[in-house]
Amino acid sequence: MTAIVRAILVSVLVALAVPALAQSPRIREGDTFKPEEIIQSGHKFFGTVSRGVALTVQEAFKRWGEPNGYILGQEGAGAFFGGLRFGEGVLYTRNAGDLRVYWQGPSVGFDFGGEGARTMMLVYNLPATEGIFGRFLGLDGSAYFVGGFGMTAAVRDNMIVVPIRTGVGARLGVNIGYLKFTPTATWNPF
Description:
The protein has three helices and five strands. By secondary structure, the protein is an alpha+beta fold.
């Protein structure tokens, strides 16, 4: 009996979710960004650390190819075994427009310190602008004092989000957590 109830609930949730995605701006295949475009945007956004950004972007393109969206924003994070991260920025797409997004998320692991960071996130396999909203699971590692630079990856379904961060602060450790993207700011990381 519980299997039937679960099947009905899943059917209802899918039926409610599909029209919402159908109404959001669709992203067509082939509307990706070239490495030069992302690097140019990174130069403008990050400024003096742009050589490191260029190398990191090139590594992301080698691993995952061309993204069909990217986010530019800033975030703050802190951890003492468990951690929290909060950020805001703008999702840029080739043909579906720009969208303000917020992200937050908890993490747990061997992780200590705090940071403030400028963040560029490359977004792969984004079906529609509203498709960014949800939780992306990832593994993160940091080791820097005063300033630092890093790239991680977080996944959900077929989508991949690759945060590239340049931060100020002191952070050491490795953790597992998720980023939850929302259309409005919230203090609730869960």
